[in-house]
Specification:
single chain; Metallo-beta-lactamase, Chain A; five-stranded mixed beta sheet; 32% strand
Length: 181
């Protein structure tokens, strides 16, 4: 079995900002990555509805990092477990674990990729078309080449190299449409 990946809304950064929101399905896993700032919640909920998925059916939410443009709409998913760089959260339970290598399902796992922040993670999904990475290692396909808000540019470069060494066929950046590396 392999994962199915859909971009629910494509983000942007400039005068206004919105994060790219991604849906990943694999067996019983229905995960939303980075349900952050968007112009209106319908940009997340309407594409989900078109796919026949109710918000309460979402099993997992992954935060690439804790900036509001990637987390603001997490509360839409009332039944989900929430994942970040060091724990899994559900209701009033906080379970510590390192995200690096953590498997959400047989085809979906997390990878520690510091740079934009020290706590960044990337969501990796094995699909029929190859490896897909939802990540904030890039803002968009067009750049910027150097992340202007990176906490650690050296770590960002190292994380990019580590991710690219895995041979992803598609990268879903933090604020733009998917691109082929």
């Amino acid at each position: 079995m392999t994962a199915i990946v859909n971009v629910l809304t494509t983000g942007y950064a400039g005068e206004k900002v919105a994060g790219t929101v991604t849906l990943i399905r694999d067996g019983d896993l229905i995960a939303v990555v980075d349900p952050g700032m968007v112009a209106h919640r319908g940009l997340i909920l309407d594409p989900l509805a078109e796919l026949g998925i109710a918000p309460e059916a979402v099993t997992d939410v992954v935060f690439s990092h804790h900036h509001p443009d990637h987390t603001l709409n997490a509360a839409l998913f009332t039944e989900a477990r929430f994942h970040d760089h060091w724990a899994v959260y559900r209701d009033d339970e906080w379970t510590d674990r390192d995200a690096d290598g953590f498997e959400l399902s047989p085809s979906v796992r997390l990878m520690r990729t510091p740079g934009h922040t020290a706590e960044d993670i990337t969501t990796l999904a094995d699909t029929d078309d190859g490896l897909v990475a939802a990540t904030h290692l890039w803002w968009t396909a067009e750049g910027p080449e150097e992340d202007p808000l990176a906490a650690d540019l050296s770590a960002l470069r190292t994380s990019r190299e580590s991710l690219l060494a895995l041979g992803p066929t598609l990268i879903i950046p933090g604020h733009g449409g998917p691109f082929r590396p």
